[in-house]
């Protein structure tokens, strides 16, 4: 069983990532750390805690992380994020007065303690900006280096970005933090737009959840339907919504879902191409690159796993 930490800016696809982790027998979810992006860090933390309760995992603690980029002093949610995820991050769906159980530590200290306690048995799945991970590297690199793997949802190597021709949204929030991670030598698997845009959910699947008649099924159907509607505005050619963040969790559980290219990576931090994830020319001959970039995905297998796991879990909650 994999010990897992989810580092999230909990919007809709992060909610699906939480659901995938909760629905996977291979995963021991030991905590969620909060970051900013789709919503303010505090909002995302509340969302994560209430979703855990909805999914029957209310005992899993959430930990507050950094609330702005490493090279900035504050953060404001972009209008496009509110369009895609709703102002509350969950498609304007109200989860009621479910409790918010916040851990006593901050996110960075929790990550470092878990890395020391569990070592190679720990996987960190980061689906927002890499700010918490960069801060953990700065504070105690040797402890963080004990983790088995860091899987990130972010970047675009073989396709265009989604916030600029060059940049993907998570990386663009804090390019310096992502660049630090890519250059660190830590074992990183990048699950970017190259593969996530191929994994799509439609109203057909959300209707399956709605028909379960359970609270979790109905709430998640409402949340994801909002997300699908936003894609009809922003990316009508896709004919569905991309399963960005849950694919990253799935890859942490079953790495053979994707084909990866080992490559020494960097992030461009200045100029027009700020946020671009690309191979580092200075390290192209590195015989053992620490980053694996997902460039192909078994779409049918992933979607089958996704629907089977989540539908069964929602059926029970």
From TrEMBL:
Annotated Inosine/uridine-preferring nucleoside hydrolase domain ranges read 4-303
Q: Does the keyword Protein transport apply?
A: no
Q: Name one GO cellular component term.
A: cytosol
What InterPro entries does this protein's entry cite? Inosine/uridine_hydrolase_dom, IUNH, Ribo_hydro-like
The alphabetical list of record keywords is: Glycosidase, Hydrolase
Q: Which GO terms describe its molecular function?
A: purine nucleosidase activity
Q: Name one GO biological process term.
A: purine nucleoside catabolic process
- By its UniProt entry, which Pfam families does this protein fall under? IU_nuc_hydro
UniProt keyword Hydrolase, yes or no:
yes
Alphabetical list of PANTHER family matching this protein: INOSINE-URIDINE PREFERRING NUCLEOSIDE HYDROLASE (PTHR12304), URIDINE NUCLEOSIDASE (PTHR12304:SF4)
Q: What is this protein called?
A: Nucleoside hydrolase
Organism of origin is Aerococcus urinae
